[in-house]
């Protein structure tokens, strides 16, 4: 007698259905659909004003959508705010503030309280685990003002991971980093996501540091979105349809440039100025 096989349909850890957001009479997001699975790395690409930060705010629940729905799987749990780690776009760290690296990370546990509680063995262990995960133990006791941008970014990621989130949102964490640091941070986030089963959504203008680690790209332009593998999204027909005017994917010296079409009247901006490694396109 044959044994029955139980088939388990794994639902996305996060699902956005037909998300629309209006500010006054302007539609910022237009029927955006996104599915994110556990451990998946998604690069959210688009220029200023494309709607990237707005989309993150909808996921975080700090901005209500005009239309559509946001749903989390049972794996994420009901306490969604505690299950989402978040590194905002702009954090100014005063170079003179008397705060060590490990103190900054610890704020992920108790930053919502008044004052910083006295250290405990359990608390220190959690902080040390996250410092080790982001390879920051070497400068954990250094003043944060003396650390490089890449080192500070690692600490902020460790802080966001302290609550053991199921989803990690990073809003342009590479914008102030040099090329080497940007690649290091990207690889680090990818490694942590895969090892801990954390879904990562990383916002970026330049997708080059994300190549080779991201599973999918979510491309926003004028509030509209297209999502898929790099080879599925970076195509003439797909991007032309997204922008509503001709867009070409060009091979230049072993790389691929996304540029406007032959219409010289088009006012192109950073939206269509991305390079991707040719090896990522098939």
What's the number of structural domains?
Answer: 2
The largest sheet, given as strand count, sense and whether it forms a barrel, is:
6 strands, mixed
Q: What count of helical segments does DSSP give?
A: 7
Shape: globular
What's the end-to-end separation, in Å? Answer: 46 Å
Order of helices and strands: EEEHEEHHHEHEEEHHEEE
Report Rg.
20 Å
Number of DSSP-assigned strands: 12
Q: Which structural class is indicated by helix and strand composition?
A: alpha/beta
Approximately how much helix is present in the residues? 25-40%
Instruction: Going across the biggest sheet, name each strand in turn.
Output: 5-6-7-3-8-9
CATH topology title of the largest domain: Rossmann fold
CATH superfamily of the largest domain: P-loop containing nucleotide triphosphate hydrolases
Q: What percentage of amino acids are in beta strands?
A: 25-35%
Low-confidence stretches: 1-9, 112-116, 263-282
- What is the CATH class of the largest domain? Alpha Beta
Structural features, described:
The structure is a single chain. It is globular and about 55 Å long. Helix 2 packs parallel to helix 4 (149-161). The chain contains seven helices and twelve strands. Mean pLDDT is 81; it is low at 1-9, 112-116 and 263-282. Helices cover 27% and strands 26% of the residues. Strands 5-6-7-3-8-9 form a six-stranded mixed β-sheet, sandwiched between helices. The protein has a three-stranded antiparallel β-sheet with strand order 2-1-4, with helices on one face. The protein starts with 13 loop residues before the first strand and ends in a 5-residue tail after the last strand. Strand 1 (14-23) and strand 2 (26-36) form a beta hairpin. The chain has two domains: 14-228, P-loop containing nucleotide triphosphate hydrolases (Rossmann fold, 3-Layer(aba) Sandwich); 231-282, no CATH class. The chain is of the alpha/beta class and 282 residues long. This is Zinc/manganese transport system ATP-binding protein. One of its GO terms (molecular function) is ATP binding. Keywords: ATP-binding, Nucleotide-binding, Transport. Residues 14-247 form the ABC transporter domain.
